[in-house]
Structures are given as structure tokens and as C-alpha cells.
Amino acid sequence: MTRGERHAGAHPRPGSVTLAVGLRQSWRGLTSMRTALVLLFALALAAVPGSVLPQRPLNPFAVDRFLGEHSIAGPIYDRLGFFDTFAAPWFVGLYLLICVSLVGCLTPRIRLHARALAARPPRPPRSFARLPRTASVTTTLPPAEVAAAVRRRLRARRWRTETRVHDDGATSVSAEKGYARETGNLVFHLAILGVIAGVAVGALLGYEGRAIVVEGTGFTNTAVAYDELDPSRLGGAADLAPFSLVLDDFDADYTDGGQPTDFRADVRYAEGFDEPRRRTTLRVNHPLSVAGSRVYLLAHGYAPHIVVRDKDGRVVYDEVTPFLPQDGSFLSTGVIKVPDVSPGLPQIGVRAAFLPTVDLTRDGRLFSGFPDARAPAVSFEAFAGDLGLDAGLPQNVYELDTRGMVRTGGGFLLPGETSGPLAGGATMTFVGFREWANVQVARDPGQRIVLVSAVLALAGLMTSLRVRRRRIWARVIAGPGGTLVEVGGLPRRNVEAFASEFDRLVAELREHLPPAPREPAAPQPTADAVPVSDVRDSREAP
Amino acid sequence: MPVDQGLAELSDTLLLVAVLCYAVAMIGYAADWAFGRPLSLRPIAGGATDTLPASWTQTTGRLGAAHPRRGAAVGAAAVALTVLGWVVHAASLTTRGLAVERVPWGNMYEFSSAVCLAAVTGYLCLLYRQPVRHLGAIVMLPVIVYLGIAGTLLYAPASPLVPALNSYWLKIHVAAAAIATGIFMIGFTTTVLYLVQDARERRGRGGVNEQSRMPSVSSGGRMPSAASLDAVAYSLTAFAFPVWTFAVIAGAVWAEAAWGRYWGWDPKETWAFITWVLYAGYLHARPLPRWHGRRAAGVAVVAFVALMFCYFGVNLWISGLHSYAGV
Ligand code: HEM
User: How far does the centroid of ligand 1 lie from the alpha carbon of residue B276, in Å?
Assistant: First the structure.
């Protein structure tokens, strides 16, 4: 029987051909180590689409773009769930199957291992000659004392021992060590189950959302405040822990080459819906914990303050609008939509770019030379007509639909400057700018379970890979030239490392036992096969 | 944070010197292998090892001690050069770190250099405990290739870190990943060597007499037996796997602090996971009788390919949140 099968069919029972047998067999199949192997390969393979295709939870726009570009493969992938691989039914099914397999595989192993832990080290084999390591010592001490000395030596080295007196008058000491291997292995596999359980708890009870907060404004932890929210699956948006914060100031440091070195967001916050008073600084890698949630600084950008006036100088638009950075120079783009100019006049849309450090290329095009706002400017293109807001469809605030509009002009503004007429005599003023921070708010109640399980898994794994199971027997018998001690050792794997351990033990024994005048030659191990069945991990027994 | 250009240049020069040392050492190993007298494997552990059933000797790491032989001087010189290369290489990494006043594994170039240093360290540690000099040439080869790629395609001038990478956990995470990758790398090399030797033994040309399992002098007896190569490959992988596991955990801790979730199936994370699962598959496959040997080795090779993809493939072809991709 192969090792895996032996392991799987830990309790072979004769059974009639019934449904129960069929079920039991498929159960055994599911819990065999070979199946575990197949499941692992399947898991590795199943994760691949999730890494090479765009994923909805990470980047929904990229998925849409992919669908647009691949008219044949796209919909097929979509139906297969490849754009949300890790929530696809087949992926979830696979790891549930692994859970079932693990439970089925661990239950009998835990029982067997518990029994092995309670059992006494086995009787010595009839002949030591077939063991991979043997030695013998003769001494003048009486057998009982010798057996006690051997036992003490082994105990001191934390071997489990069992002393037996045999019919032929010999006393034997059986010793075994390395149970931690199986313990570690069981802890590892149980901890894997713990990790999966923790992930499930987080997926069901946790939430995560992102919001852009402009300097000088606040954020309240309610569903409407988010730009994007992935609420808890069981509790919904009602689960959001109440807290609020205000972004007082945002700062970024750069090297002279324009590489960022530090981001800081000074915030005030409070639990519940009190006035935010407590101050702290949010940084990348240093989240804020409040009301059981954590607040992270993810990204930042600029929000120009734009005012639009109609031909009579009446303010029709006065907002600080977050623009999205496009590259490392923080050239940022955004859109201004002015639906209500004056009765009878067309709506105005502006496509604009914010340049933190404006500069000119040789051929006269504008670009941003540095990410920090050293010489900010706004360049824009204005459109007049119908913004398409009345169609009732939700619009992307960062995109302008110009199908119902005509371009009326463009230009370039420094802070404080006002443009010429855009449409219908309206003008635009670039008042100044503020910075914004993109914060992520998350709560994951499964996180601690996952961390503790992962650490346990690691500890179990290291134990399981380092520790080896091994046995030593000593037979003590009175002989004509003194007391003869025969010692034999049987390691499970790694004979080499065991050999030195064994030799050390024997040398110690020699030191502690007064030698008899004549010592017979140590028996040489023969080249026959060693009885494999002598030491087995409990998972292979019986 | 200013960058000390002088130190940075010194670091680059030292790396070049290290690569040269390794290259010459590799030639030495190859010469040792080709012209030295065949190596004879001494039966070990009281003669019992070779008679044990395979499953009992799987982790018998010994390749057998070499008898004194001709050509040994070349081999010894190669080892000396490897040690010298290692010292220079370590100095290169250290000066890079001093030049930028941070840990020297902040971009792909530095990481690659650290991986190779881990690989050579692993090889030297192995050599200290066992006579594995025969592996020298083949261990040096991927190290030189890897360093070559690092120094040319991936080269990045010394510069400070972007804020997201400036974290305590990240340093631990990347260091563990570099060590694991380096050890997996020599494990992979040994596995490939095992597959080659196994094929030779099957064709009866491996230089190991089936009866005595002792090398025959006639042909290519310089190769250690397939079984012992397999054992070395296993012990390397079994060492690196928990380190990789730790690296993944440390990465998750960092991701939690930086992005607000410990795991997000970002491409880098996904491939780290795939690699982990495949190596777990290798550890699972080995004890199974039908998988022990070549099939399990095949799994290890696939796992290493996944590891390389996790590193080069993801950084260069798929971009994710890991701003590490700064080539
Ligand atoms: C998520 C799924 C699993 C993972 C990641 C996993 C991982 C591992 C790893 C890394 C080892 C090596 C540790 C060692 O050699 O001591 C191992 C060993 C083992 N696993 Fe799993 N395992 C999984 C599922 C299972 C299942 C379902 C079974 C049930 C049959 C199983 C049975 C075993 C056994 C018997 C060993 C001991 C092999 C040996 O030490 O010779 N594993 N597993």
C-alpha cells in the first residue's frame, strides 16, 4: 500500500457493498494526501487568471477596457468569473474543498497522534544487527544499575523511556524522541484552517472604503461620504463605526529630483459625531485607529479653487475641485461642470490641467517640472452646450461628455488670474489651490485570527521540518566478562545527523560506566534492509 | 536624504569585482570537475545508508567525502575565489546601503544583488558542512547571470526610498524574501542537476554501479549520486520554505499598515501565493511513493519558475500596487 493510501485508510474495515461504503471511499479519497496534492495544484492554477487579467475589485476601469478590446474572449472570461477570480464560485468551492479535506485528514491524525503520545516506546527488536546504528559497552556495574544509568542519560536528553525486564533475564530500555514533528505538522495544518476561517470572518464582517478629503474639509464615516465603499456583507452600511475627521493640512516632501520622500496629513478626529478635537498626523505606513476602524493615507493630489462668474459678474460656480494626478510630476487633470449659468445661456464645461510647477518645453508646450507646487498654473479648454446631466445616468465627475457641446476656447491661468469670456460672457478665475488626501477606511475583525493562525502555522511548519522522529534501544544483560550493554538506534530519515547524536550518547555512556577488562568487538551492521515498520509516524499507523 | 555618490560608485565597482571573482571561480569549478580525478563516494553512516529504503534516507544530505585527488588545488582555488567574491559582494551591498543611508534592498537591482549574496552564502554554508564542491560551477552560473541582469537591465542609481517603502516591516519582508529566493535558487540548481544525473543513472551511465551504489570510475563518476543530489535539494528547499512563509506573512503585516488590508490579491501577492502553494505541493509530493523522485523534482522546478515570475514577470510585465517595480 502506498504511504498516502495507508494514511488515508487509517481504519480499514471490512464492509458490504453499500452506499455507506461508497461514501466512505469517496471520503477517504478526499482526505488522502494525494488528493491534497491535486487540490494544491488546482489552487495554484486557479489563482493565475486573477493575476494576469484585470480584476473588478482592484480596477473596474481596466476590466471595462479589456472587455472593449476583446470582444470574443472578454465575455467568455466574464462568464467564467475571471474578472473577479478570488470571489468566483469555483475558487471559493476549491478552498472549501481544501477545508473539508483538511478536516477529514486531520481528525484521524490527531486521534492517532494523541494515542502515540500516550503510548510507551515499543519493545526492542529481536536483533540489533539490522539497525542502522549499533554499539556495545561492557561494564563492571550490575545490570540493574546499568539500566538505570542508561535511562537517566536518555532522560537527561529528554528522550521518553520505558524499561522492561525480559524472560531471558535481560533488561531493556526503549527510548523515543521527536514527537514534536507530528505535533508541529498538525498545528501547521490546523492553523491553515484558522487562516481560512479568519479570512472568512473578515469577508463577512469587515468593510473597506475610500474617500478624497480636501484640506480644510471633513469626513464623517457614513456611506454617503465615500467615493467607493465595499460594505460589510452581513451588516451592510449600518455597520460603519461612527467617527469623523477634519484634514487640516497636507504636506509632501520631495528630493531635488522630484522623488517623494514623505507624506503627512495633519488631522483632527473624534469618535462618535462629536466635534473633532484630537490631533494626529497620518502618514503612509502609519494608520490611525479610531472607533475600531483604521484610517490610512493612500494617495494625494491637488484641488484647484475655481470661480466662474456669469456676464453680470454673479458667481455661478465656486468650488475647490479635486484633480487626479497623471504622473510623477503631478500634472493633474479634472473637469468643471457649470450646469446653471444664467437662464437661457448654454451650460459650461471645462477640461483643465493643474500644473504644480509650470514649465515650457522647447516647442512651447506646457508641462509640470516638479511635483511640489512651486509655480502652479491651470491650463484649460472650455466647452458650451449641453452637459448631458439630464439624461439621468450617473456621470463620472472626472470626465466631460462633449457630444452635446462645442469648444469655445482655451487658455492658461496663474493664481488670481481670470480668463476671457468662455461662453455667454462668463469668465473663470483660478483663485488658488488646496491639497487633498485619499484616505482608506477599513475594519477587518478577522485580521487578528489570521495573524495568530499564520504565526502558529509558521511555528508548526518549522518544527515539522526540523524535528525528526528517532528511537534508541538498549539491552542490558549479565555476562561472563561483566554486564553487556547493546545499543541500537533507528532514525526516521537523515541517518547522518542521527549518527552523530547516537555516537555522542554512546560515548557518554562509556564515560559513565566503569569499563570491564575485556570488551568484545562491536557487532557490525549488516547490509540487509532495515525493518521499515519499526518506527512509523502515527499518521501511518496502524 | 543626500546620496553619497562616491560610496555609490565604489559599490558598483565592488559588484563588478565580485562578479569577476565568481566567474573565474566558476571556471575553476568546471576545470576541477572536468580534469580532476573522479570523485569516489565514501559510503557513509556506518555503511548502512545506501541499504536503507529510499524514504529513510531522503534527507541524508551527505554527498560522500572526497578523497584527496589531483586537480584538488584548482577546486580549492575556486572555493577561495568564491569566498573572496562573497566578501567583495557583501562590501558592495554594504557600501550601497551606506551611500543611501537605508537598507540596500530598495529596488530590483539591489534586491537581485541581495538574492545572489544569499545564494552564495547558502552555498558556502553547505560547503562548510558537506563536500558539495561539484555543485560550485552550476551554483555560480545562475548567480552570475542574475547579477549580470541586475547590473545591466535592472540597474538603478542610488536613491532614497519612496515613502510607501519606508517601513520597518518592509525591510524584514524583503530581507526574508531575498534569503528565501537565494536558497530556492541553489535548491533549483541542485534539482536540475539531480534530474540530469538521474537520467544518466537510468541510462546506466551515471557512474554509479547499481549493485554497490558506488561510483564507477569509468564514466562521469565525478557526479554525486542522484539520490544525494535529491537529498541536498530537499534540505535546501525545506530550509527556504519557512523563510518564504515568513516573508509572505511579514509582507501581509506591511500591506496592512500601508494599504489597509493585509491581502488584496495584487499580482505580486497572487504570485507569492502561487509560489508558496507550489512549494507546499513539492513537500507534499516527496513522501508519496509515486511522486518521490523525478515527479517531485518537476514540481520543484515549476515552483521555482513561478518564483522567478513572481519577481521578474510581475515587476516587468504586470504592474500592481507594489511600487517596488521601480526598475
Ligand atoms: C491548504 C492545504 C495544505 C497545505 C498548504 C499543506 C502544506 C503542507 C506542508 C508545507 C507540509 C510539509 C511539512 C512537513 O513536511 O512536515 C505538509 C505536510 C503534510 N501534509 Fe499538508 N498541506 C495542505 C493540506 C493537506 C491535506 C488536505 C492533507 C490531508 C491528507 C495533508 C497532509 C499532510 C501530511 C500527511 C504531511 C506530512 C508529510 C511528511 O512530513 O512526510 N495536507 N503539508
Answer: 13
Residue nearest to atom 22 of ligand 1 (CA): A189
Q: Which three cell numbers stand for residue A46?
A: 486557479
DSSP conformation letters of B163-216: GGG--HHHHHHHHHHHHHHHHHHHHHHHHHHHHHHHHHHHTT-SSB-TTT-PBP
Residue with cell 589531483: B70
Q: Report the atom number in ligand 1 closest to the C-alpha of B276.
A: 5
Q: Which residue has the cell 545564494?
A: B119
Burial of B91 (0-12, 13-18, 19+ CB in 10 A): middle
Q: Tell me how far CA of residue B91 lies from CA of A50, B81, B88, B99, B113, in angstroms.
A: 40, 15, 5, 12, 11
Name residue A299's beta-bridge partners.
A438
Angle between the N-to-C axes of helices B108-129 and B72-100, in degrees from 0 to 180, rounded to the nearest 10: 140
Phi, psi dihedrals of residue A32, rounded to the nearest 5°: -80, 160
> And the C-alpha cell for A27?
471520503
Per residue in A48-86, pLDDT (tens digit) is 888 888 887 777 777 888 888 888 888 888 888 888 888
- pTM of the predicted protein model: 0.79
Residue A445, Cβ density class (10 Å: 0-12 exposed, 13-18 middle, ≥19 buried):
middle
A17: left (phi over 0), alpha (psi -120 to 50) or beta: beta
Cis bond upstream, residue A542 (ω within 30): yes
> How far does Cα B30 stand from its chain's mean position?
18
- Under an 8 A CB cutoff, do B52 and A496 touch? no
The C-alpha cell at A510 is: 562509556
Q: In angstroms, rounded to a whole number, what is the distance separating the alpha carbons of residues B304 and B187?
A: 9
Nearby residues of A509 by Cβ (< 8 Å), 6 or more positions away: A137, A149, A150, A153, A485, A487
Q: Give the closest of A199, A260, A465 to B162, CB-based.
A: A260
- H or E element at residue A371: none
C-alpha of residue A188 to centroid of ligand 1, in Å:
8
Question: Is the per-residue pLDDT at B95 higher than 50?
Answer: yes
Q: What residue in A sits closest to B268 (Cα-Cα)?
A: A51
- Which atom belonging to ligand 1 lies closest to the Cα atom of A102? 27
